[in-house]
Amino acid sequence: MTVTSSGDDVERAYPESGRERPLITLDLAPADWTVDDIERLPHDGYRYELHEGSLVIMSPAIIWHNRVAVRLAVFFGRAGRSAATEVGIRFGDRSTRIADVAVFAEEPDENLAHVTPDALAIVVEIVSPESRERDIGSKPAKYAAAGIPEFWRVERDEEDPRDAHVFRFRLEVDGSQRYAIRSRHRLSQLEKDGLIPQV
Predict the structure, then answer these.
(1) How many CB atoms lie within 10 A of CB 150?
(2) pLDDT digits (tens, 9 = 90+) for 155-164
(3) What residue ranges in the chain does DSSP mark as E strands?
(4) The overall pTM is greater than 0.85
(5) Is 193 left (phi over 0), alpha (psi -120 to 50) or beta?
(6) Among residues 162, 172, 140, 142, which one has the least CA distance to residue 153?
(7) DSSP code of 106?
(8) Going by DSSP bridges, is the β-strand pair 24-27/179-186 parallel, antiparallel, or unpaired?
(9) What's the rounded Cα separation, in Å, for the pair 99 and 86?
(10) Does residue 96 contact residue 122 with C-beta atoms inside 8 Å?
(11) What digits encode the pLDDT tens for the residues 10-57?
């Protein structure tokens, strides 16, 4: 399989950058991608995940999604937790996922593009129409199977688009590698309180 990226879409979206976009061609057999391979891909505005060796290219998220991610990262920081947006998670050599927001169990190595699941205390997925199936199904299942203790799902408040509903899940204590819902909050209320609620 040959993948060519020139960054043309990004150039059209951000013409003010004025930078020349490199042309990159990769020749790899289907389902033969590794984490090392995707870490060499260009930073061209796309997001890359690796699903059991198959490359998945995702377009940039919508502005609402990005703003909510930043708000959550700021919220976690003010609550005394180390967090970041668009965190790459490595599940072995042939699988990755990108969490919209992640809270680290301890301060991470900032030079890493991907962390392992044991480095994370909380992962957050912000549900968008194009990613709903992944955000409520396959991604939390992957996170739970890897033992990440807590998962937050965030959905837009249709009555107040500036706000969002936060559904908080924790791993079942029976070792079944499944999440169970523990609480529900409004993002605006979490920001006002400034604390991660106890569950």
Answers:
(1) 19
(2) 999 999 899 9
(3) 2-5, 24-27, 47-51, 54-58, 83-90, 96-104, 114-115, 120-126, 150-156, 164-171, 179-186
(4) no
(5) alpha
(6) 140
(7) S
(8) unpaired
(9) 5
(10) no
(11) 333 334 444 444 444 555 556 689 999 999 988 887 889 999 999 998
Residues 124, 69, 84, 35, CA torsion sign: positive
Q: How far apart are CA 104 and CA 83, in angstroms?
A: 6
CA distance 53 to 31: 4
CA gap 88, 103 in Å, rounded: 12
Q: What is the C-alpha to C-alpha distance for residues 73 and 79, in angstroms, rounded to an integer?
A: 10
Nearest to 14, CA basis, from 58, 57, 59, 44: 44
- For residue range 81-94, what is the model confidence (pLDDT) as tens digits? 999 999 999 999 99
Instruction: For residue 10, give the nearest of 59, 69, 78 by alpha carbon.
Output: 59
Rounded to whole angstroms, the Cα distance separating 164 from 156 reads: 4
Q: Which residues contact 170 (CB under 8 A, 6 or more apart)?
A: 149, 150, 151, 179, 180, 182, 199
CATH class as words, domain 63-193: alpha beta
Ramachandran assignment for 50, one of left (phi > 0), alpha (psi -120 to 50 degrees), beta (any other)? beta
- Residue type for position 102: A
Q: Domain locations in the chain?
A: 2-58, 63-193
